Each structure stands twice: as C-alpha cells, then as structure tokens.
Amino acid sequence: MHEAHHTGDSAADVIAAAQRSSAITVRALLPQDHGRWDAFVHSCPDATFFHRAGWHTIMEQGFGHDGHFLYAEQNGRILGVLPLVHMRGLLCGKALVSLPFCVYGGIAAVDLQARRALDARAQHLARELAVGHLEYRQRDGVIAEGWQGKPLYATFRKTLLADDERNLLAIPRKQRAVLRKAIAAGLHSAVDYDLEHFFPLYAASVHRLGTPVFARRHFALLRTVFGNDCDILTVYQDQQAQASVLSFYFRGEVLPYYGAGSLLARSSGANDFMYWELMRRAGARGVRQFDFGRSKAGTGAYDFKKNWGFAPQPLPYAYKLIGANALPDVNPLNPRYALFIRAWRRLPLPLANLLGPHLVRQLG
C-alpha cells in the first residue's frame, strides 16, 4: 500500500513538474542571452531592427538610461521579446518606453500567451517604477482597450525592384527630374568608414532646425554595436561632402536613419541624389525594402517622402497612463517649444554641440 501511494505521488510530481516546465516565463535579457534574442528577432515577423539586443547597449552605455529588455520563453524557446527603457527627465517626465530614440518597438511575439505575459510584466514594471505612462511604438497592430493612441506619425516603406531603371521610373516625374539633374551635375557617392564627413554635416543640419544634436560617440557606438548592419553613405561634389546618411540594414531592408545635408545640398540636389544612391547601392546588395522612416504630418520631411512616391502608413503607437493624467506633448510642433527652437538656432554651433547631447537624451 505504501509503495502504491508513493508511486501515485511520484506521478503527480512528474505531472506538476511537466506543467511548470511548459509554462511561459518572462525573463530579463542578460549578456549571455544576446545571441538567442537576436536569433528570435531575425525570425519573428513582428520584429524590427529596433528589437535587436544591441539597443540595450546603446540605451545604457550611450544614453545612461536603464534598459529592461524582457523575453518570454517556454521550454527554453523564446516566443516573444519586449525591449523597454526607463526614461527620466525634466522634459519628458518618467516613462517606460519601447523604444526611445527609435521609430519602432513594442512586443514582437509568435504566441498570444507570450504577448500577454510580456504585456502584464511591462505594466507591473511600469507601476513598480511609478512612471507617468507606458509606451509601445508599434509599427503594426491595433490599440487595445484601456490604451490611448496618438495619431502623430506615419511611416513610409516601399519595395525596391531588382532593376535600377525600373526603380528610377517608379519615382514620380518631378522628383525624377531633380535626380537626373543631380546626376548630370557630376555628384558622386562613397561609403565612409568613419564620422569625419557625416558628423559635421549632421550637427550643422539639426542646429539649423533648432534641434539638439546627439553626441558624436552615439554614432560611433552604433557603428561598433551593429557593425556591417550600419553604414554611412556620403555624397560629394568634386571633393566637397554635401550630404551624408547613416543607415541600418535588417532582413533585406534598408532604413536611412540619420540624414544630413549642407547649405548647398538643396540647390545641388545632393539630398535627393543621396537617397537615390542608397536605393541603388542597397538594391545591388540584394535589399528589397526601403524604409524611409517616420515623419509628422504637416512637416517638410513628410511631404519630401510623399514626393518620392511613398505612401504614408499611420503608426499605431499605444500609450497606457500609469501615474499621469495626460500624455506629455514633447514634439517640435507643440507651440510651447517654438521659442526654444528659435533660441537654439541662435546658439553658436560649438556651444550647441556641447549642450545638445545633455538635452537630447531626455527627449527619446
């Protein structure tokens, strides 16, 4: 009798252990998990370049923000990831964001239960950290009940064809004429392996816009962390650099992310030529998707991308109020910031470059 009773207990223990082992658990990303995390990101249809584990390094080492990169797993297999960053600043307040300084983020998962587990952990963490709001920068999807939307941004994505001439003909006639003029003017491009040309162009460009600049080391860190999946293309007229763009590559897609042009770039067509050269070069390496990134409706960047024949796709960013009564409105279109933008433009460029990185880390 004793033996039969003992056998029954063992069977129950085995069943309980099996149930525990098959449960979905949520864990924090550790350095030894980066390979597994990125393998999942590369295979998950929901994932983007901004879900990569390297962003944990960028956020913590580059900006000094605490990263809370969560993954859900079952029986040792990752089923979903959620990169989160704890933002704290005078301008943006306290927020838990997926992912600041990035156009996309949110939960990337192949399983509904994993998605729910990650969301539950994120909401618990948001309350634990006493943030104002939790933010998912989704590229696709719907805004769930109890969350808020903010129809501020659209993204612009388009398929690249294998033939340069067909890609050129797919550009609207007026924009194509600008490109042909730039090509005839003798502009040429080269891939740069340092920041010598890119950073001065970028710093001067954002200063003219009245926007604080990222630190030079931010771009150096991006190059180090993402290696060959991050490059710089610069456009020259004779030997003078006129425009430059730092781009990311992910799963057959190119994302021109930080672009800049000199004062001469508009009249010479260097900005337009730069994006065409990026399309052409990316196509030659087998890239078949061009992601022009997000822009706000009513801005010059939004109109510029439409002029290239890209259709805007609204971004369904989702926000959950935690401790705040309303979402902060930290964007250059807010009239409250008009005075700041005008004053920033008047700062000497060296001073703007010195102060900018301390401000921009708060904006996200």
UniProtKB/TrEMBL annotation:
Classification via SUPFAM superfamilies: Acyl-CoA N-acyltransferases (Nat)
Domain BioF2-like acetyltransferase: 175-306
Pfam family of the protein (one): Acetyltransf_6
Source organism, top-level taxon: Bacteria
Gene3D superfamilies: 3.40.630.30
InterPro entries linked: Acyl_CoA_acyltransferase, BioF2-like_GNAT_dom, PEP-CTERM_FemAB-rel, PG_Glycine_Bridge_Synth
Name of the protein this chain belongs to: FemAB-related protein, PEP-CTERM system-associated
Organism this protein belongs to: Janthinobacterium psychrotolerans
Source taxonomy: Bacteria, Pseudomonadati, Pseudomonadota, Betaproteobacteria, Burkholderiales
